[in-house]
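Researcher: I need the complex structure. Ligand is pyridoxal-5'-phosphate. Inputs:
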Amino acid sequence: MFDINQVRADFPILSRQVNGQPLTYLDNGASAQKPQVVIDAVTRAYAEEYSNVHRGLHYLSNLATDKYEAVRGTIARFLNAATEAEIIFNSGTTEGINLVSYGWAAPRMRAGDEIILSTMEHHANIVPWHFLRERQGVVLKWIDPEPDGSLDPQKVLDAISDRTRLIAVTHCSNVFGTVVDVKTICAGARAEGVPVLVDGSQAAVHKPVDVQDIGCDFYAITGHKLYGPSGSGAIYIRADRQTEMQPFMGGGDMINEVSKEVVTYAAPPLKFEAGTPGIAQTIGLGAALEYLMDLGMENVAAHEATLASYAAERFAGLNWLNVQGTAPGKAAIFSLTMNGAAHAHDISTILDKKGIAVRAGHHCAKPLMEHLGVSATARASFGLYNTTDEVDRLIEGLELCHRLLA
Ligand code: PLP
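Model: Output:
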């Protein structure tokens, strides 16, 4: 286990005040704060080591290319990918899933082909598939969560038909915190010849991930939730699936030859990375993942499990508070509603006056909100630097909300 005081000291923003109160940052599900090592890595990338990558023959370009390309190995290690070439850099999960939608799914799907989704997907894992429904007549099949917010892997597998071409499912719900048994889904899907895309945006932040053990075809992560810079990210695409893909964006860096008549493409992963990339952002992501691996993702998971069970216990004592999603083993993400007229936005505004940052709204999960029959929740999502004292502060804030709003 790590020293929580040391960890907190690594994140400069945590020592600031908000509205005259110490900051209690519980909006990690939306985006996490950055440790000094990430800030330093980004600063160094611009102040001392900046140039465009891949193209130059000069010293700085080679240096920047080496630093940038080294991150591919870091991400491969973080996810336990078999090879670095299976890691495609991008700006985040949204871009990663769109790459799969445009580059792999669109060219091979016909009207009537089916994609299975869970009702608790983030819009980033919904809208790119709606494009295929709108444009190509692909059918979206939805699997609802259980009343406790879990997803039954068997229900996902039972939905497979001979027209199913893809299962796209989150590894961890950004609303419930539920961890989905993607390994069972992947094993069953593989037996039926159906590829699986896993949205790892939330899960990779909270627990160790091993894409080979999971057995998925695609696994998307996003840097800014992983304590790295915004505009950084990656998607793991297993080598055999890469050979089935067309490039999504065309431009510099992804070509082998271009003439007036023809174009040939670079080998993957560059084939799927057009244009000047987020150089400093990616280098910052590398620093963030090294930081996480130094702490140990098992230790991060254990610390957050303690927070999750303490928070669940304290919430259970408030009979006017509803926690959406109570499945065992969930990540420390709590979507809250209150009995009575309290709106999530009012809860968030009152908590903000106490220096407590939570998110209020639909969390880019409108089908799930509809399923739950609510328009919005207030979401407290914990990260590796949060403490049980901060859970207590949240509870005090919620009690104040209840007094003011009930
Ligand atoms: N998927 C899930 C489960 C998320 O929580 C998020 C971000 O909130 C995303 C996808 C989209 O990530 P990004 O906006 O970084 O592309």
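Model: Summary of the prediction. Residues 4-30+296-405 form a domain with the Aspartate Aminotransferase, domain 1 fold (CATH 3.90.1150.10).
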